[in-house]
Design brief:
With 278 residues, the chain is an all-beta fold. Helices cover 0% and strands 47% of the residues. The protein is built from no helices and 24 strands. It has a four-stranded antiparallel beta sheet with strand order 3-2-1-24, with no helix packed on it. It has a four-stranded antiparallel beta sheet with strand order 4-5-6-7, with no helix packed on it. Strand 18 and strand 19 form a beta hairpin. The radius of gyration is 17 Å and the shape is globular. The termini are close together. The mean pLDDT is 92.
């Protein structure tokens, strides 16, 4: 098992612009894939049936990667895709947040047909992570975009009733960067508030998926720098991990305790992370 992290480049952080691999003890292993189709990589997700890693490339394409680090599927360049995060849905499709279109699109796992919108274009000012809840609802974090415009909330969509949506979370201290569903069914969100501020407060926040009330706030408590938190993932052992600037930070989800940095690398500028068998 490896910890894989996408490191942004260019305007998204001046980092490595690569998919990086770490051992579970935090040792840096190097670049996982050397392929020029991986540019300014963003979202990551594992396709469980085939143990393939799906990666959203800033080169406007989605790639599927084997455990040997080989690209085995490629959508080819999709004009204007500008993908953000990605997850697999209950129907087996791979869903991608679109930064320019401000919505979510879906692709079949074999990546052989064009994407189809799951939600209408411009559904939020700027998508900042999404996940399907245990009850089938889709939770979408609506945050602040690079241009400083947007809002700070979480929307819940009931897809079976003509995309009916509700504003689930109203938290004045939330500025979401990614969203995941915890084993208990609640929503966890990485937050930097105010977004982009030098003195921003960085946390992971847990919300009740039923009514959106704030359950807990996970803070670094001096055990990690936790600057610019982004992607969230639960490890196979149930610990919560969040990639941030120069480090990946762990949290004991049961107790809420910060475990400090589980991996460190200057200029990491992490966007997403997964635990991938090797």
């Amino acid at each position: 098992m490896l910890l894989l992290v996408t490191s942004a480049s260019g305007a998204n952080g001046n980092g490595f612009g690569a998919l990086l691999a770490f051992e579970l003890d935090g040792r840096f292993r190097g670049t996982f894939v050397e392929d020029d189709r991986i540019a300014d990589p963003r979202g990551l997700a594992i396709q469980p049936k085939e143990d393939l890693l799906f990666l959203n490339s800033g080169a406007d394409r989605v790639l599927a990667i084997s455990s040997q680090g080989l690209v085995v599927r490629d959508t080819g360049r999709i004009e204007g895709l500008n993908p953000g995060g990605g997850i697999f849905g209950p129907d087996g499709r791979y869903f991608v947040g679109l930064r320019s279109a401000r919505t979510i699109t879906g692709l079949p796992a074999n990546l052989d047909t064009p994407p189809e919108y799951l939600l209408p274009p411009q559904v939020v000012p700027f998508p900042r992570g999404f996940a399907f809840g245990h009850d089938g609802r889709l939770f979408l974090a609506s945050g602040i975009g690079p241009n400083g415009q947007g809002d700070n909330t979480i929307l819940a969509f009931t897809l079976s009733t003509a995309l009916e949506s509700t504003r689930l979370v109203a938290d004045p201290e939330l500025s979401p960067l990614d969203l995941a569903i915890a084993p208990n069914g609640n929503i966890v969100v990485s937050s930097e508030h105010p977004f982009g501020a030098v003195d921003a407060v960085t946390t992971v926040r847990e919300y009740d998926a039923r009514d959106g009330h704030l359950v807990r706030v996970f803070s670094p408590n001096g055990k990690a720098e936790f600057g610019k938190p982004r992607g969230l993932r639960f490890a196979p052992n149930g610990l919560l991990h969040c990639v941030a600037r120069d480090e990946v930070v762990g949290f004991d989800f049961a107790s809420g305790e910060c475990l400090g940095a589980v991996a460190r690398l200057p200029r990491l500028n992490g966007q997403a992370l997964v635990f991938f068998p090797n």
